[in-house]
Amino acid sequence: MIRYAFTLLFVAFALRLHAQPNAIGSTTTDKKLTAKLETALAGFHGQVGVYVRNLKTNRTAAVHADSLYPTASMVKVPIMCGIFDKIDQGEVKFDQELVYRDSLKYDNGIVGSFRDSTKIALPKVVHLMISQSDNTGSLWLQAMAGGGATINQWLEKNGFANTRVNSRTPGRKEFQARYGWGVTSPREMAELVAMIRSGKAISPAASDRMYRYLGMQFWDGEAISQLPSNVKIAAKSGAVNQAKSEVLVVHAPHGDYVFCIATKNQEDQRWQKENEGYALIRKVSAIIWDHFEPKSKWKPVDGSEKFWF
């Protein structure tokens, strides 16, 4: 009886660890892509996980995709879902004008550089959070969404067992000490963005608006730089000293695909393009594109050209 109870407990834990939105359906493993990714990740000085799903065929590739990683600024995707959930419930008006106060300042980003009493429309703060990754604006929106606990409830309700906001969230201090602002797995973060892409996050209208924001990226020097400029991409990246990450939906000619790559405990902590984490993100992005679009003649511009990424 004890052994049976333990088995049930273990199964329940495993199901929770791998929980995903129900809309995904059945998937099959892309063994060739998985092998390519395993080779690319070998020898990395730190931990790294990757998850890929072809949205047309539902074939997946995963390497350490269910391990937990710092979200860094990818946490702004759940925050965006939180504020749009409040808008959908009628508790927040999408087109309202907000008033910035000095007490909101976190850093010297765009919003944090405003003068006290500056007026700004809520949609512009959301835009700055996603496109520019503005931290002060993001924390402002996190509070407006009801705080990290409310956002985490939305994530739990929608099948995301491990993606959570830690910063300024009661009961999450230990997780914040380990993972920073937020925590996720490559699988869950990719599927969260895929949920938005499919129109199933909050409502079709909310998903549409959120997806448009994800398509307006200023930070395009890593995974996005390995993709043709005429291909639509929706993305969010994140970076702290020991972790680099990015999540993308790529509207490739032969079918859309989503992928997320995340690192942690990196030995290389340089804030330079040559950082091992950044280099790996670019490498993985190119591998996935070439796998799905093998006959594409487009190649990323190399360092000898005068391009600023």
Automatic annotation (TrEMBL):
Residues 1-19 form the signal peptide. Residues 49-263 form the Beta-lactamase class A catalytic domain. The keyword Ion transport does not apply. Keywords: Signal. Pfam families: Beta-lactamase2. InterPro entries: Beta-lactam/transpept-like (IPR012338), Beta-lactam_cat (IPR045155), Beta-lactam_class-A (IPR000871). It catalyses: a beta-lactam + H2O = a substituted beta-amino acid. It comes from the Bacteria. This is Beta-lactamase class A catalytic domain-containing protein. It comes from Dyadobacter beijingensis.
